[in-house]
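Help needed: design a sequence for this.
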């Protein structure tokens, strides 16, 4: 199964395998850029153009796999943790979930795709269990399923983007010797239009927040400074073919703004909870690998900062261009988390 991440600025694919000894292998990966306006606020505005981009993505990656895991943005999904009696049969559990879901979902249930999973015993000390329910408008699910089918793929899992990126992040946290299960990690995913924050401890989210700030602002600054079209600016930003004064006149002010946004988000976390520090700041997304960003974040926040490379600790197949991967790895966090679903029972 491949992981397919569809964002407002690009489509990304990851295919993972395993060796006989159980080590993960990055078999294939690829990114294809999308034009502005093809996807807006999580809605597919130009279906044929996006499905064509997904077809090119699959071809570019070299993958021969049809089964695909995809995800919806958190804004399109309602999630709620509920407590139910333990020991129910599957049928009884489904009936209870549907009855509970009616309270939290502002749409008729026949217009909704609904799923649930048992998280584990409830903290109240009884025989109750915690159950996570997730629901989305059926049309949202059908849109991305249709997109996969139009590209010749078979959708088998629809996840939530933040859950997928958290799965990939928790694998990284588990492999870091300086962290333990109780360590608090603040994950920032810098997208084109939005920077998403999740504060994670022991695979649980303590706090999350989205801010309207992203890599598209850097593109706009390049347009204003040098008179390029938005398309030229985006292409030159990706390739690094920019004038000599770019680093000091454009990149540095953008980096400073991004660092301030990260510092502000952390302050919101501290004032909204009983916590006053994090053990690590992890940066992902297209802008995460900007030169000097991790140092600037550490300087501003006083917390250690690293770029999230979701392929850390994996073997890399010969089909993958490692030089390009080093630059693009932080962009693959969500698609890597989706690809990891292949190995979860």
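Sure. Designed sequence:
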């Amino acid at each position: 199964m491949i992981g397919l991440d569809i964002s407002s600025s690009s489509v990304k694919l990851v295919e993972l395998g395993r060796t006989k000894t159980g080590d993960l292998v990055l078999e294939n990966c690829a990114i294809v850029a999308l034009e502005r306006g093809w996807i807006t606020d999580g809605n597919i505005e130009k279906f044929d153009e996006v499905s064509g981009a997904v077809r090119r993505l699959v071809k570019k990656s070299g993958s021969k796999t049809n089964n695909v895991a995809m995800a919806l943005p958190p804004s399109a999904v309602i999630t709620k943790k509920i407590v139910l009696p333990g020991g129910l049969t599957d049928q009884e559990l489904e009936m209870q979930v549907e009855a509970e879901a009616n309270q939290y979902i502002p749409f008729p249930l026949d217009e909704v795709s609904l799923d649930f999973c048992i998280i584990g015993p409830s903290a109240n000390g009884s025989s109750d269990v915690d159950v996570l329910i997730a629901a989305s408008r059926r049309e949202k699910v059908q849109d991305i399923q249709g997109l996969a089918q139009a590209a010749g793929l078979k959708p088998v899992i629809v996840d939530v983007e933040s859950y997928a990126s958290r799965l990939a992040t928790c694998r990284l946290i588990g492999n870091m010797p300086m962290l333990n299960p109780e360590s608090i990690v603040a994950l920032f995913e810098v997208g084109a239009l939005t920077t998403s924050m999740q504060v994670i401890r022991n695979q649980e989210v303590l706090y999350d927040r989205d801010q309207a700030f992203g890599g598209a602002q850097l593109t706009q600054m390049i347009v204003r400074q040098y008179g390029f079209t938005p398309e030229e600016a985006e292409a030159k930003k990706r390739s690094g073919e920019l004038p000599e004064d770019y680093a000091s006149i454009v990149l540095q002010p953008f980096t400073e703004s991004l660092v301030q946004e990260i510092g502000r988000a952390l302050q919101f976390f501290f004032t909204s909870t009983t916590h006053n520090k994090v053990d690590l700041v992890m940066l992902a997304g297209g802008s995460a690998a900007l030169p000097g960003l991790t140092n600037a974040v550490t300087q501003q926040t006083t917390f250690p900062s690293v770029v999230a490379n979701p392929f850390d600790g994996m073997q890399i197949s010969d089909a993958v261009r490692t030089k390009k991967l080093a630059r693009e790895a932080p962009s693959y966090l969500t698609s890597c988390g989706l690809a990891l679903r292949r190995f979860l029972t």
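The mean pLDDT is 93.
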